Amino acid sequence: MSLGKTASHLVYSFANGGSVPWFAADRDSVRYTSGGEQEWVDDPQREGRQVGWVSLPATEYARPVRRLALRCRKANEQWGIGVLISTLSPGEVLALTQPTARPDADAATMRLSYVYLYDQRGGGVETSFKGDHQGLGSTKRSKKRFEAQQMVMLLGTLAHHVVIWARRWLTQTAAAPTKLRHYGILRMVRDVFHISGFLVFDTCGRLSQIVLNQAAPLAPRLVDALRELLVPAHVALNLGQT
After folding, report:
1. How many independent structural domains does the chain possess?
2. What are the residues whose beta carbons fall under 8 Å from the beta carbon of 161, sequence distance 6 or more?
3. Is the pLDDT of residue 92 over 60?
4. Which of 15, 112, 146, 239 is buried most deeply by CB count within 10 Å?
5. Is the same domain home to 102 and 22?
């Protein structure tokens, strides 16, 4: 994930009261560690990894953040550098990683506590990002203007939630197919939202019937769940040829 493409997302989130505990950046990471002499600390739990605070001021964010640089030797013996950005204070991080540590722990312990907390993260966030990228094509909509990128981010967030809400609506009925509960963004968009069909309107222009393509693999399994959802709207749902 590159800082150049997503820094605006963090700025917007911070400005609106959001909290983003962790953010990993790859591209332009060298720029953060080239402004003067960098003090590196060896990681005793992972050979070849070193950590150090970023000394450059973080003026591009709306809230105070702490940035920690990490570097590891690559196969070509060059350093691979990344940056962790956190809104958590050292005390909060120590409480999460080393509850018995003193608040006035040494500088090396403070730095390493951020890294160890980041190492404990699960893959849920990364998986969610990957699902959005594949299912919603979010990587293909990058704008040059900051305001435009904000709007793209908000529309992407809305699209993400609409897909999640639709999955919840379809699975809260007794007739819902069980495996639908485990569908991610990609499968919902590709396998559910792409079922073809047509709409039938009455003489007053009101929607009266939805016909789904009976040849679609998931259509027969979704009919009963969709019928329950459409009962309050008095809309019939059937299978047919489209």
Report:
1. 3
2. none
3. yes
4. 112
5. yes
Last residue of a domain, one of 80, 95, 121: 121
Q: Are residues 45 and 84 in the same domain?
A: yes
CA-to-CA distance for 120 and 22, rounded, in angstroms? Answer: 12
- Whether 116 and 156 map to the same domain: the answer is no
pLDDT tens across 111-170, in order?
A: 888 888 887 765 555 555 555 666 676 666 666 777 787 888 888 888 888 888 888 888
Residue 141 is part of which domain span? 122-192
